[in-house]
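User: My instructor asked us to take a sequence, write out its structure as tokens, and then describe one feature of it. I'm not sure where to start. Here is the sequence I was given:
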Amino acid sequence: MDKEKLILSIMKSAEADGEPISREEAEEMAEMEIKAKGITEYAQAKEKKPRKKREVKKDAVKMELVAQLADFIQREIASHVEVTNDQRTIEFVVNGENYSVTLTKHRKAKEK
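Assistant: Let's start with the prediction itself. The structure tokens for your sequence are:
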């Protein structure tokens, strides 16, 4: 909506309310309305809530698989093996090159 139409509609609505206003007053109101449309207000909380540390549940099957894989890698492939996460990651060195194995347990597919 252009400014002139907005001014005329403000003057018309004020006259319909029984309180006619001058063109200068209508122009001022139109400018304030145009400026107000460009303002967006983002509300922010005054304090941030402290995050609760999520407790990871231990999966005995994954822990056992990682231990067995690490044992196998140490016996058959590499002499230096390190379990960096007892439920997930094994790191080892072969011929001076660093490798890692990450164990992933996949979730069940959702039924459709």
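For the description part of your assignment, you could build on this observation: The mean pLDDT is 86. Try explaining in your own words what that tells you about the chain.
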